[in-house]
């Protein structure tokens, strides 16, 4: 069980770091304190693991019709969901969440590749480190 804990903690840290950087890049994203940032990263991971796949299945015809671009809307909705659940985490609007979710995904990928030494290993990909 402990061998699964390290990839989880790495993913949580990468998500926390990406959210923190996004709060400096986008003026519409605010964290009241560090605990709200850490809890937001944890809840975003759970939302992406549990709710996002369900939304993808439910909206599959629309996602196919838009050639996958609707997935960007789903990512923004996950970010807004987390901001509505965590006290101390605010997002000014949908478009801020939309562009911030793209930024967070790209930054998380880049940080993950850097930590992996320049390449994506099968073990990290299989454990769900990449969002």
UniProtKB/TrEMBL annotation:
Q: Does the keyword Transmembrane helix apply?
A: yes
InterPro entries named in the record: Phage_holin_4_2
The family database entries (Pfam families) matched by this protein are listed as: Phage_holin_4_2 (PF04020)
Instruction: Kindly indicate whether the keyword Transmembrane helix belongs to this entry.
Output: yes
Question: What stretches pass through the bilayer?
Answer: 6-26, 38-58, 64-82, 94-115
Q: GO molecular function of the protein, one example?
A: DNA binding
> Which keywords does the record carry?
DNA-binding, Membrane, Transmembrane, Transmembrane helix
Q: What is this protein called?
A: Histone family protein DNA-binding protein
Organism, as annotated: Sulfuricella denitrificans (strain DSM 22764 / NBRC 105220 / skB26)
